[in-house]
Design goal:
Largest sheet: 6 strands, antiparallel, barrel
Number of strands: 12
Strand order of the largest sheet: 2-3-6-7-5-4
Structural class: mainly beta
Order of helices and strands: HEEEEEEEEEEEE
Distance between the termini: 97 Å
Strand content: over 45%
Helix content: 10-25%
Length: 181
């Protein structure tokens, strides 16, 4: 009788250990996907009730680190103090880095200064909202009303009202007037 009892006790203890191990294995699984995913983003940033920036993009993925990934086209409109659009920016995709509060726009980036009629093109640039500036270390081309300037590296106010090229190449073309496209 004690032999059967010991055997039964051994079976019960084995089952308990096995079930605890199995349960522990389930608890060790960690979700590694996005924290959230939003579609159809149309966001307005304002300061004291005045629109400063308007952003539109199709998708926003928030990572567990609170970084935000915008895998589709992003468009930004910057407004002057009177509420007029001063510049428009677009890129194929973007990434927001929470740790330093910066945005990186990538792929066929175009900045259009509406007021000056100037257009800058590059493959990538960084926007620092706290400093209200944008910059890139990549090649750029700037089309003004009379010139086309190529260079590498670019620093500007976020609304593209002022800017400077770090390295200008020899390909500056001056004409009486360029087409508006």
């Amino acid at each position: 009788m004690f032999g059967h009892l010991r055997f039964l006790l051994l079976v019960v203890i084995s089952l308990l250990i096995w079930s605890c191990q199995k349960e522990q294995a389930v608890d060790n699984r960690v979700y590694r996907g996005p924290k959230s995913e939003l579609l159809g983003i149309d966001m307005v940033y304002s300061d004291s009730g005045r629109t400063v920036v308007h952003m539109i993009t199709d998708q926003q993925i928030t990572s567990p680190t609170e970084d935000r990934i915008y895998p589709k086209e992003m468009k930004l409109w910057f407004y002057d103090k009177l509420g007029n659009v001063s510049s428009q920016i677009r890129g194929d995709s973007a990434h927001f880095f929470r740790t330093n509060n910066s945005y990186k726009l990538m792929g066929h980036v175009v900045i259009n200064n509406v007021l000056k009629g100037e257009v800058m093109k590059t493959d990538e640039f960084t926007w620092l909202p706290d400093e209200k500036r944008i910059f890139t270390t990549k090649p750029v081309s700037i089309k003004t009303r009379t010139d086309i300037v190529h260079g590498v590296g670019f620093d500007a106010a976020q609304d593209f009202s002022t800017y400077s090229l770090r390295h200008v190449s020899n390909s500056v073309l001056t004409v009486d007037e360029l087409p508006t496209n």
